Amino acid sequence: MTEQKKPPYGIIAILFTGAFVAIFTQTLLNVALPSIMADLNIKDASTVQWLVTGYMLVNGILIPASAYFIQRYSNRSIFIVAMSLFSIGTLIAALSPTFGVLLAGRMIQASGSALMMPLLMNVMLAAFPVEKRGSAMGFFGLVMVVAPAIGPTLSGFIVEHYSWRVLFWIVLPIALISLALGAVKLKNLTFQDREITLDKASVILSSIGFGGVLYGFSSAGSMGWQTPAVYGTISVGLLALAIFIWRQLKLDKPLLQVRIYKYPMFALSSVISIALAMSMFSGMILMPIYVQTIKGISPIESGLLMLPGALLMGIMSPITGRLFDRFGARVLAIPGLAIVVITTFLFSQLSMETSFLQIMAIYTFRMFGISMVMMPVMTNGLNTLPIKSYPHGTAINNTLQQVSGAIGSAFLITLMNMRTESVAQDLAASGAAPESIMNSALLEGITYAFEISTLIAIAALLLALFIKKPARPVEEAEKEEVYKRTKVAESQ
Fold first, then answer.
1. Is 474 a residue whose pLDDT tops 50?
2. Residues 210, 403: contact at Cβ < 8 Å?
3. Which of 31, 74, 75 is nearest to 51 (CA)?
4. Are residues 405 and 311 located together in one domain of the fold?
5. CA-wise closest residue to 470 among 415, 370, 393
6. Binning pLDDT at 50, 70 and 90, where does residue 477 land?
7. Residues near 433 by beta carbon (within 8 Å), at least 6 away in sequence
8. Range of 242's domain?
9. C-alpha angle 295-296-299 in degrees, rounded to nearest 5
């Protein structure tokens, strides 16, 4: 890859739009699932949940292979294929007469969106020099944070006033415009290795491994850990992942270069990002349960409660990017994680009387803290890698976000359920009024899960103390090699 003297902002804007609409769609149906159940006559909630779970599974399976596609094909070709698949899937979903067709449309959507985030990250790493990369990745944070946060809020408003199909009709023209602009305007910014081959065994192992782990943990909250479909798929997935990693270490040109974990700052950034994702998902998963079930707040109001935090996080992303360029990740990560620890602890003190504004204020301040950590830490880790390893670094980061989100959600929901059941039994034995048992027990379960989430955030804070500004491994010799390759490519 080459670092451009003048970043191609027009190309990045096109990629930015495509990635935004793809990630936005990931959470778009969360609030619309009950309406879809009623309209398509689906009796089982676990069946309709596949519209969300399936989307995440396809992402988790395809993202690890993104490193190969980005190295093998031009970013223009990848974008056109990805947005074409996404647009076709969106059209199928909008017109779907049955649940099966709707699910197929969502899967096709996901196959396109899975390539968009790694593609955008790689182009931005290639287009911006190291000293300006924090600002660039800060704007990238807008896509990663604001898009999925706006989805449920917009979905709640539309479903209340219109058909759920309108959700897809809104997305389709944006996707088609982005596709048309990409086909006309996009130029290649990355170096291709035409000799690289796709290791089919690695693809199969990756699909079974990440797919099994994601499915198992995603299903644990609703199906229970004792279900063979849960512990069986997790076990098979972990075994496949172990073999997958072993195989990557043996291959000269692996599907996913796991050897990049020899760079300490990249390894540290991965661990902090996993802990942060698990802690962040505690808010996204547990808060709607608390405000809707215990406080009796509607789904739309629940989405609005979390919207200021998401918008603030989006506003802060470019600002923290600039601060990262100037001061480094450590100066931002330590106070940011301290805020996450404090606000998560405050959530562990929730009560029946906690007001709507109190919850919104804590949640918004919490997202402010997360905005100071997420992109700076991730960018700091990527900056330590050689240029040729960028596709692998971005693929690993995006895959870990999917997996840690699923694992964190399942883990915290399980803790909540266990605590709820235990407290409910104790309250029933003490002769408490039946009508008060469920809410009191559920509140105890939610606050307990937040207590554990606080400990996870503390662990991330302690790890952040070891963050350093990495010495760049890409020095003059490698830059000269990249320059030679670029000249050869330009002459062909």
1. no
2. yes
3. 31
4. yes
5. 393
6. very low
7. none
8. 199-254
9. 115
Report the C-alpha dihedral over residues 13, 76, 131, 336, rounded to 10 degrees. 60
Do the Cβ atoms of 406 and 217 come closer than 8 Å? yes
* 8 Å CB contact between 65 and 254: no
**CA atoms within a 13 Å half-sphere pointing along the CA-CB vector of 113:** 34
**What is the widest separation between alpha-carbon atoms in the chain?**
83
Residue 222 Cα to chain centre, angstroms: 21
The rounded distance, in Å, linking the Cα atoms of 341 and 359 is: 16
86 and 175 share one domain: yes
pLDDT-based confidence at residue 490 (cuts at 50, 70, 90): very low
- How many structural domains does the chain have? 3
Residues 418 and 472 in one domain: yes
| Same domain flag for 245 and 274 | no
CA–CA gap between residue 125 and residue 482 (Å, rounded): 14
3-state DSSP percent of the chain in helix, strand and coil, to 5? 80, 0, 20
In this structure, the answer to whether residues 204 and 168 fall within a common structural domain is no
Give yes or no for residue 211 having a pLDDT over 60. yes
Measure the CA–CA gap between 442 and 423, rounded to whole angstroms: 8
Shared domain for 185 and 297, answered yes or no, is no
Q: What is the CATH number of the domain that holds 299?
A: 1.20.1250.20
Q: Residues 271, 322: one domain?
A: yes
Instruction: Output Rg (C-alpha) for the chain, integer angstroms.
Output: 22
Q: Where on the phi/psi map is residue 163: left (φ > 0), alpha (ψ -120 to 50), or beta?
A: beta
pLDDT tens-place string over residues 377-393: 888 888 888 877 888 88
CA dihedral (62, 64, 68, 71) positive or negative:
positive
Domain boundary among 147, 179, 195: 195
Q: Give the tens place of pLDDT for each residue, 43-102.
A: 766 677 778 777 877 877 787 888 788 878 888 888 899 999 999 999 999 999 888 899
